Amino acid sequence: MCSSFGALRAGSWASATMQYKQDRPSPLAQRPLRSGQMVNCLRQHFIYSEKRARDFLFSAVENVLRSTAEPLILSRLTRTTTVRAQQDAVISGFEFSNWDAAGNAVIQAMLNAEVLLTHDGSPVPIGIAAQATPVADLKQGYQDLTEAYLVEFLIRKLGDVTTRDHRAVAHALFRQFDPRISMDFFEDRVAMLMATLADRVTLNEVGAYSVRTKQNFALYSNA
To answer: DSSP secondary structure string, the chain?
Structure first.
């Protein structure tokens, strides 16, 4: 009697385990879901941009600042940069249609990352006056700092980013880039960006990231 009951229990447990494995998404299936969650998080807060478009915009804002005799206020810099990036993309054969949204997202991320500088070298203040503030220069390493800000934003907003999410972060930030470049390269890029956050992001014993303190409340107050 006991052996029959035990066999029944064993059979039920095996059946339940098999059903759980069938219902549970595989790690490969989970990656698109996780990276999609990250993309949606950035998009909902108007700071998401595709990698190729972002790089054109980075290059354009640098060229615009170098070629203007007088600093442009941020609102005009955003428009001028977006037009320049679109022109450069056409010349390069890169097809992209959503330039206005991408331009606003990249400039907003740069503003939040405090890489847009005024004439005295201080960051453009975040707030209601930002759009009317003249931008004179870019902080050294502005591209890395801006993308590191996006990583930090995801860590703070999602609250459950771990070391196992490096590939998902790489997909979220870089997946539209040149497919000939190995995803391993982009995972290494994520690791390097994480390293730049060592002064304010911690890693606990189970591999979960958390932001130690808010460097500037304004960076997250409207995001």
So the answer is: -HHHHHHHHHHHHHHHHHHHHHHSPPHHHHHHHHHHHHHHHHHHTT----HHHHHHHHHHHHHHHHH-SSPEEHHHHHHHHHHHHHHHHHHHT-----HHHHHHHHHHHHHHTT-EE-TTSPBPPPSTTGGGSEE-EE-TTHHHHHHHHHHHHHHHHHS--BGGGHHHHHHHHHTTS-TTS-HHHHHHHHHHHHHHTTTTEEE-TTSBEEE-S-S-THHHHT-
